[in-house]
């Protein structure tokens, strides 16, 4: 078993706040990270699909991991999205994130070009031979070449550095088959689900945790669901699962992904800014219309609309006041 133990619990595939110029809003980003950790997520998963990794440059993706690892400060482990457009750049990302001290990296199966299973295996085998950091396979067939059960089994047995899989297919039977094929020979191998509507079922069949978009909006709720299942309190967990499913369905299916998640994080009191993908006036109106339903579900979850008050902590307010006073003094107003 790896000296650092299995990946387990709820890892948040966090979004990245952007400023008025469309650049990373580092102050708001750090505030968001602190809130997620304070509300109980087990880990952070920057540069995932919800984090829109394909819409950032290579240097920006690296900066995102720098910010997350620095702000987390070892309080929770970081699972860094390391997927690039080719294997050479992906291995380079693995090397860089290893230097930053991430717990592991997550690498999506090759995207855009659909590959056969043998070439999906060849891709991850090359990474497994050359990575200095532990690797989580990322199966998301809606966006990338699927990773089938024989490939997962083969890689788990041949590559010590491949320690987990994140599966976002939502296919419970597929997860069962993977666990059954891999766990007898690699009991320390972690299985993470990326499909929020079936968390209770996935945990019940043996998943170790999840990387779940809803946890970026309602971290306490997803943490509670996980804890309840681990404690065997399935009836209580089932009630929360229905609410999580309602929120997930509204945010995933009612607007182009992940724009509704951005709107929902805004409702929690964070200025996420406008995404880099231009959206139509019709879609903007649709997002405005989703706010009321999102609020209702959050209230049903017991979550207040605004999680963090004004958007500034006490030190930030003090700095702002001092700056205003200094400017007024300079102008001779006071």
Describe the structure in your own words.
By secondary structure, the chain is an alpha/beta fold. The chain has a domain at 9-233: Alpha-Beta Barrel (TIM Barrel). It has helices spanning 26-38, 58-72, 87-100, 117-130, 149-158, 172-182, 199-204, 219-230, 234-253, 259-267, 281-300, 314-330; strands at residues 9-12, 43-44, 79-81, 104-108, 135-139, 162-167, 190-193, 209-211. The chain has an eight-stranded parallel β-sheet. Helix 5 (149-158) links the parallel strand 5 (135-139) and strand 6. It is globular, with a radius of gyration of 21 Å.
What is the strand and helix layout of this fold?
Elements: E1 9-12, H1 26-38, E2 43-44, H2 58-72, E3 79-81, H3 87-100, E4 104-108, H4 117-130, E5 135-139, H5 149-158, E6 162-167, H6 172-182, E7 190-193, H7 199-204, E8 209-211, H8 219-230, H9 234-253, H10 259-267, H11 281-300, H12 314-330
Parallel strand pairs: 1-2, 1-8, 3-4, 4-5, 5-6, 6-7, 7-8
From the structure above, extract its key features.
8 strands; globular; TIM Barrel; 334 residues; eight-stranded parallel sheet; alpha/beta; single chain; 48% helix
For the record, what CATH class of one domain applies?
Answer: Alpha Beta
Structural class: alpha/beta
* Alpha-carbon distance between the two ends: 66 Å
Radius of gyration: 21 Å
Poorly predicted regions are: 309-328
**Order of adjacent strands in the largest pleated sheet:** 2-1-8-7-6-5-4-3
Global mean pLDDT:
92
Strand percentage: 5-15%
Looking at the structure, the CATH topology of one domain is TIM Barrel
Would you identify the CATH architecture of one domain?
A: Alpha-Beta Barrel
Q: Which overall shape is indicated by the principal axes computed on the Cα atoms? A: globular
Q: In which range does the helix fraction lie? A: 40-55%
Order of helices and strands: EHEHEHEHEHEHEHEHHHHH
Number of helices: 12
